[in-house]
């Protein structure tokens, strides 16, 4: 899982049948050196600018109402941005 910020939406007029009904978001990972934007399905109702928790892998199928080819899934919306103390790092 990662924490990231929603930076945009993906609009797709045609997609795989079981993806119908899922909102697709662009997420920029935070607290990591990897700044590659990812696409994640959203069932939580997150919006642009919000900080979210994203889960990866086939375990996401347990959180879906139908079997869909989803690798990245927004599973939470962060209420308060975490405070990370990097001075404790080795």
Automatic annotation (TrEMBL):
It comes from the Bacteria. It holds the Pfam family EutN_CcmL. Keywords: Bacterial microcompartment, Carboxysome. SUPFAM superfamilies: EutN/CcmL-like. Its main location: other. Coiled coil: none annotated. The keyword Cytoplasm does not apply. It is found in: Carboxysome. InterPro entries: EutN_CcmL (IPR004992), EutN_CcmL_sf (IPR036677). This is Carbon dioxide concentrating mechanism protein CcmL.
């Amino acid at each position: 899982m990662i924490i990231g910020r929603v930076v945009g939406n993906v609009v797709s007029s045609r997609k795989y049948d079981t993806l119908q009904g899922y909102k697709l978001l662009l997420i920029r990972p935070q607290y990591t050196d990897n700044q590659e934007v990812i696409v994640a399905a959203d069932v939580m109702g997150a919006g642009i600018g919000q900080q979210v928790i994203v889960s990866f892998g086939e375990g996401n199928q347990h959180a879906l109402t139908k079997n869909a080819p989803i690798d990245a899934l927004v599973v939470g919306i962060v209420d308060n941005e975490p405070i990370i103390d990097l001075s404790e790092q080795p």
